[in-house]
Amino acid sequence: MTLSAEERAQRGLRESATFDRTTIAAIQRAAETGIYDIRGWGAKRALPHFDDLLFLGASMSRYPLEGYRERCGTEVVLGARHAKYPVTIDIPVTVAGMSFGALGANAKEAIGRAVSAVGTSSTTGDGGMTPEERGHSKTLVYQYLPNRYGMDPDDLRRADAIEIVLGQGAKPGGGGMLLGQKVSERVAGMRDLPAGIDQRSASRHPDWTGPDDLTIKIAELREITDWEKPIYVKVGASRVYYDVKLAVHAGADVVVVDGMQGGTAATQEVFIEHVGIPTLAAVPQAVQALQELGVHKKPDGVQLIVSGGIRNGADVAKCLALGADAVAVGTAALIALGDNHPRHAAAYEALGSAAGCYDDFQDGQDPAGITTQDPELQAALDPVEGGRLLANYLRVLTMEAQTIARACGKAHVTHLEPEDMVAVSLEAAAMARVPLAGTSWIPGVTA
Amino acid sequence: MTTYDLSTTPLREVNTALHAEGLSGAHVITRPAGAHNVAVGVDAPVKITIEGHVGYYAAGMNQQAEITVHGNAGTGVAENMMSGTVHVTGSASQSAGATGRGGMLIVDGDAAARCGISMKGIDIVIGGSVGHMSAFMAQRGRLVIRGDAGEALGDSIYEARIYLRGTARSLGADCVEKEMREEHLEELAGLLKAAGHEDDDLTAYRRYGSARTLYHFTHDNEY
């Protein structure tokens, strides 16, 4: 019989804060298996996040826009610095790179349908571009990753933008993983590998190693595509200030910064929870780098896309207020499609998990039919319905961000600024570089 | 025949011209002076001759074209080639033929580190020796080395095949010598012939490939 928390307390039993039950289970699992834990999702630990920021709605010193009448723009132009055809998105929310392989074809189709419905972009992943994905996504960003699985110059030309991936927030410094359970014949064929084997993606690009090389690589991609496409550079948040500066110097049109709450399909648990910095801390560093280079918020400047733990319109607005031009959602997009939905509770429990906790994206047994290549499991996700749900979610994010922007008197969501916010914790004030609420104190900035 | 002088014509103009729809015939690029990204992204059954040394990524992502570099090539020559041939008469720097998915890369001289890294179907014939970590994570295709190989040849190799005439300073993780059967001798003969080395003694070559012990995660194979 398992004792309830109350019964344990009555008996004077006390759990260790250091060795709590999750930690004990992890030690026992390691002892039994002899291999580290691999899982999906992003960091689950509590981190200073956007919840610790609040907006200063207008009153006397500022006046607001009418909530339902006055225009509050949401469109964003990305990559006008060098590209013949910059990308224009109607809303400041994009869908982050998730590979065909990590996700099933239905999920990729649903994402494509959703982004096309709301006028934004989706992104491929490590595994190449599928015809379905290209067909359903009006605006598609093609990722250029260390392993170059399925890398095809024809797809480069078919893409609307190219994103060179140096890392992702869940694992800055690490390569991807795709376990054999998900390496179907089609996935393997696209990656030029045998089916059913565990795929380890490299953590470094095979033909360049530093910022000077990246300059030449970006030039190559521009030459191949006749300078038509914006080139994004994506970094996992760690030394953000320096990485963003180097990316801009190398010629990036857009920099994508992914904080440690950003998700993954499969990575070592220790990596997800202990490498990288929170999104909240990453954004001001990126903005500082762009400002110092004179390319922040300029028509021919470099745009900043931020991802990692974006959940609602308030998070979107806070990111934009800190200086991002747009955000990207990944985990939240999967949740909108049905990931971790209570209707799958019994199936999650049969897998040893629970609705709300499921993160074994690497196993390919997803009851929601999203992170799987199994045709029977994928049937749980209708791409049309999934597309409708995700489009709804993206619309809500946008409307919520507009609500806040209007309240702050802004005629465009990207007009939000740090001055519109305060922090409710010292950590958030220091990381976001906004004053602690009720004071003019920004730790580390003002005396 | 069209000639482009890279000392007077901007690279962008040259590459754009080489991307013209329905491109045909022969094209010569003179005075490259080590320029990067020369003749990248070509997708046409044309002959391109580059008269001199080139920098990074020459002939990158080539499709269909027959490209000859009369000189040395910098990092990533013929990277991610899909089809066609790229011939370097001198030596090549690092990552020659990286991630190539098809076609043939011929280097008459040596190739530096990481030759054929992550190759995915390309055939590479190196006249001389290759540097360390060559054929790292090589997935598909064939790498022929007429000289020696540096350290960690074929580390974490998948299904690519390596033919080596000289010696490797060391083999990488999961790379092992394999039996040279009749079909491999035939395959090697064809590759050498295509690269202009048909007189080589086939019996002097040895074959290397994957032991396939890293194909699934276990506590024994975490390097």
From TrEMBL, chain A:
Listed under GO biological process in this entry are: glutamate biosynthetic process
In the record, the note on similarity to other proteins reads: Belongs to the glutamate synthase family.
- Pfam families membership: Glu_synthase
Q: What is this protein called?
A: FMN-binding glutamate synthase family protein
Under PANTHER family, the record lists: ARCHAEAL-TYPE GLUTAMATE SYNTHASE [NADPH] (PTHR43819:SF1)
- Please provide the record's keywords in A-Z order: Oxidoreductase
* SUPFAM superfamilies per UniProt: FMN-linked oxidoreductases
Domain of life per record: Bacteria
Q: Which residues form a coiled coil?
A: none
What is a single molecular function from GO for this protein?
glutamate synthase activity
Provide the Glutamate synthase domain boundaries: 81-410
Source species: Nocardioides flavescens
From TrEMBL, chain B:
Q: Which SUPFAM superfamilies match?
A: Alpha subunit of glutamate synthase, C-terminal domain
Q: Sorted alphabetically, which InterPro entries does this protein's record hold?
A: Glu_synth_asu_C_sf, Glu_synth_lsu_3
Q: Report the CDD domains cross-referenced here.
A: GXGXG (cd00504)
GO MF terms, alphabetically ordered: oxidoreductase activity
The name this protein goes by in its record:
Protein glxC
